[in-house]
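The data are quoted verbatim for completeness:
=====
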Amino acid sequence: MARRELLNDIKAIIEGLGFEGNNSHDTMTYQCNVSYPSLIDHKNDKAHFLLHTPQGTIQIVAKWQEVNGTAIEKLGHTVLDAVRTEHQKYLVICGGNKLVRRAIDYLNDHQNIAPKLEAMEVHELEDKLEEHLFEYD
């Protein structure tokens, strides 16, 4: 699987749950590649997906790590980004061949400072979104 495949898998899950891609911000719609101000001055970060649900918005970020490198430093930035999110949930979908489990554990271990943050592999996303969609029924 490559990064593009991970993003396609996320999109398929989102659309499979009934979300429709458009910029209206209506309930059960989603947007792709939404820019917002970064923690670093004069830079922007991107939410790969922003879902508009009946319970609020969910930011989804995909992290792909194919080789060893600066993964933990990048994940540290992700934790700090999740601390300040305006959305109800900040989901990080991790993929790749290197450090996936370690990345998920690292992010989830920091939920005490970023309670909206939750990291997972793509196969866990559908259940997590269904849980969110139906938590107030």
Notes: The mean pLDDT is 91.
